[in-house]
Structures
1.
Amino acid sequence: TRIPRAPLLTLVILDLLYALIGTCLAIAAFKAVRKGPSVRDAQARLSNLAIVAESFESPAWGQDARDVDTLFAERRGEPTRRIALVKQADGKGRKYKQLVVPKDYVKRAPTIEDFLARKTRLGTGESQM
């Protein structure tokens, strides 16, 4: 079977052009990343976690974001807001309430000492989780 020359040459030329454009864009991206922190700032601010941080936290405007964690107020040492579900005064349901967590509040993960203290408090030697 014969393959028409014009479509084949057009396909080969367009494939080479596509590869050349991809290479040029990769080189431009590599040069942009090496220029400075502004690229990392944009990368951090355009992630899903950064959008959540901007929506629910006090914004970190004017500060460079090296990573997403620096966008959260608690990582910057500022007071944060938490949303809690509390019982209503009349006892007929629950409502959402916004709580402000102070600056000096440090949240820590439970340790093995906490686990052992809970076991001795229960007095049974076994935890009831």
Note: The mean pLDDT is 76.
2.
Amino acid sequence: MPATFAQSPQYVLSNHPHDQHIPTIHESAVQARRIFNLSSIATLSTVFPHQEPIEPLENRPDNLGGVPIGLIDYYASCDPTPYEPTILAISIATSFRNARAGSNVTLSLRYHPPIHHPPADDIYTYSPVNLPRFSLLGHIEPVPASEIKEHRIDRCFFERHPDAVAWKPGNAIHHSWWARLVVEQVYWIGGFGDRAYIGWIPVEEWRGVTPEEVKSARLVGERGYQNARSL
């Protein structure tokens, strides 16, 4: 059936890939880590504090305490903890003001297939609701100065985000600092539930994925996807 025609829900249920097993939790963790490495922009969500001095020029509405807000932000996967997002935190930015006031933080990512991906036989293969997405839940803490120097955090980050050099720590525009999202929980939606794992990924699985696994994994639309060993 041409991809331009909408198929019924029954078509989705009766045409799932019977020859593929539903990925295990570990396999899902590998997929998540690959998405984490392929991307470098995600939605950072925090919660407004119930009590915080509001600057006159901020013009913030009243009664925002406890209200969540999600804003896109840059991140990078850098040593020595490549499984935790390294972030260039801008002190004046809402997300980091909320984090400083005690808010937990969630970083939400989704998989974007390559622009020139192979064609599909249906409208569901590349449907956003059938593609992997996940959230990393945790808290923000500063990257120790020793790690910044030893592991060249600035070089790692600016390789992914060259424009961000304008806001590097010590710049004349805004106060900034190197931060890390310490991942405490991982929630994963691999796609439709009849062919993908949906649920929590233990943080040990998330951290335990090896660089070799990330490098060899392939997601739908990537070259070599059909020949990937387990994904």
Note: Strands lie at 41-47, 68-74, 76-77, 85-90, 105-110, 133-142, 176-189, 198-201.
3.
Amino acid sequence: MARQFFVGGNFKMNGTTKSIQDIISNLNDAKLDSETEVVIAPPALYLLLAREKLRKGIELAAQNVFDKPNGAFTGEISAEQLRDSGVTWTLTGHSERRVIMAEGDDFIARKTKAALDGGLGVILCVGETLEQREGNKTIEIVTNQLKAVAEQTKDWSRVVVAYEPVWAIGTGKVASTEQAQEVHAEIRKWLSSTISKEASDSTRIIYGGSVNEKNCRDLAQQPDIDGFLVGGASLKPAFVDIINAKA
């Protein structure tokens, strides 16, 4: 089954009204590979601005979502509110939230289910620390993170799995092409044995971790790498080159 290439841009806590408008203007004017699905995730404050300015064909993701539909949860945003604002995707499980905000696998799984139930697509981030990789625990850690979500939902049709080795995020280090492909293949194998062969064949597994315009083409050629979740490079004009990695 042919899986549509997927490139997400996670702006993290970066940007101003002007800089985000400039990024969007560059994307709107660029010649982007029509076969690639493109989603950007600006800070929540700028989601409505981005929705207003983005051209058709580029979608929006929130960087976070809560696991309840409404209520007394100061500072949180629900899946229903995001949908109401024209946002169609959300991230869950990013390592910065796992580590800095101490979000555990179960909470991330509940947020993922709430997002799916609320009609959003989910970019589900998984990955290991350097210590875990050096202890040969990469596959165990990643599959445990996935297993928590599988206990909450069996519908993976609107889930994109983003493998992001924590030691490669924002460090300039990148997993070798072989390392990335190996983990992606193991994730696909896990999907087949735990969810279904159909889910394994159709679920897109994307790579994140210091992806840039120099390394994206080699990574994109791997059979189980279906795109990228891009951090810092998504704030730069070179993001267009990453989107066009398969072109």
Note: The mean pLDDT is 96.
